[in-house]
């Protein structure tokens, strides 16, 4: 990774912006020259002013400064998502073994994330491993979460289920997650797509309650899903929200209406790229079967 000033100079030259245009009123010309040679450092506030003059966002700057590569954690998570979404579990197992003994904090967190995904695909309760413990402690100790942490915190939820070694409840995490998401909403806008993450978080908690047969708590999630402003969601967010409302109907509402809605969503998805989209068929097949069993048990109790 290059020095910050060296990357700033590179961007300035590409955009054809003079030193005066970039640094006027922020730092002296001599300081700017040394800064661009990598000899001086700069305060974060001034750096943001310079980036504003260059019309470059902090995220774009980070990408350029990292030799046009995504941050390590983002790259690792992208690998994991691709393998998991394609159900390439043998490949994902090999990936975990490859990085399991790494000393890198980012790689430890990514391994923990992958381990939990692997285990919770067909289990409702997850044991705490060395890597997942490191991730769990980090997230619980943080008072506020960054966008990256918001994206990964949902995956520790299975660690909390009926686990006496974890000093926090699902309800505690739910309140904290909602609060952190609201921090990133601006008026009627959602520039960082945190509502997509909130839907994902809700869906995991909803499924956990279904898996452990806490149906009273699961029933509370229709109100939570409906509270989300659909106008602030992107297309995938809207599809995901509708999907989980349909799953809710399979259990607690109009079963046929839920099925119909899911088939409509499948038709919409066929028009879209496969990459990164919700695996409707797999989840629907599992939940439909479980919902039928739930309804049968309720009918037996009523009789």
Q: Please, could you describe this protein's structure?
A:
This protein has 303 residues and is an all-alpha fold. Among the domains are: 4-65, lambda repressor-like DNA-binding domains (434 Repressor (Amino-terminal Domain), Orthogonal Bundle), CATH 1.10.260; 184-303, no CATH class. It has 18 helices and no strands. Helix 1 (4-15) packs across helix 3 (29-36), helix 8 (105-120) packs across helix 9 and helix 13 runs parallel beside helix 16 (235-252). The longest helix is centred in the C-terminal third of the chain and has 23 residues, at 280-302. It is elongated and about 80 Å long. The model has no long low-confidence stretch (mean pLDDT 86). Residues 8-61 form the HTH cro/C1-type domain. It comes from Tetragenococcus halophilus. This is Helix-turn-helix domain-containing protein. InterPro entries: Cro/C1-type_HTH (IPR001387), HTH-type_regulator_Rgg (IPR053163), Lambda_DNA-bd_dom_sf (IPR010982), TPR-like_helical_dom_sf (IPR011990).
């Amino acid at each position: 990774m290059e020095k910050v000033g060296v990357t700033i100079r590179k961007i300035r030259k590409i955009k054809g912006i003079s030193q005066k245009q970039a640094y006027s009123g922020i730092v002296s010309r001599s300081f700017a020259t040394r800064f661009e040679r990598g000899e001086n450092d700069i305060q974060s506030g001034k750096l943001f002013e310079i980036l504003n003059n260059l019309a470059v966002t902090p995220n774009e700057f980070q990408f350029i400064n990292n030799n046009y590569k995504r941050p390590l954690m983002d790259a690792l998570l992208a690998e994991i998502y691709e393998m998991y979404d394609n159900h390439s579990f043998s490949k994902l197992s090999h990936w975990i073994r490859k990085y399991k003994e790494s000393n890198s904090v980012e790689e430890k967190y990514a391994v923990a994330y992958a381990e939990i995904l692997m285990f919770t695909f067909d289990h409702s309760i997850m044991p705490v491993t060395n890597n997942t413990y490191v991730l769990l402690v980090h997230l619980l100790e943080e008072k506020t979460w960054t966008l990256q942490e918001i994206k990964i915190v949902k995956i520790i939820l299975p660690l909390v289920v009926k686990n006496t070694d974890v000093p926090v409840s699902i309800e505690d995490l739910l309140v904290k997650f909602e609060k952190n998401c609201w921090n990133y909403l601006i008026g009627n806008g959602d520039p960082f797509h945190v509502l997509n993450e909130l839907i994902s978080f809700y869906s995991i908690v909803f499924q956990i309650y279904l898996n452990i047969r806490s149906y009273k708590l699961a029933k509370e999630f229709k109100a939570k899903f409906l509270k989300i402003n659909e106008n602030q969601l992107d297309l995938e967010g809207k599809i995901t929200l509708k999907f989980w409302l349909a799953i809710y109907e399979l259990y607690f509402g109009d079963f046929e209406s839920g099925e119909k809605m899911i088939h409509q969503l499948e038709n919409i998805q066929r028009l879209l790229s496969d990459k990164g989209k919700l695996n409707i068929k797999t989840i629907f097949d599992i939940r439909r079967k479980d919902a039928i069993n739930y309804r049968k048990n309720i009918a037996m109790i009523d009789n």
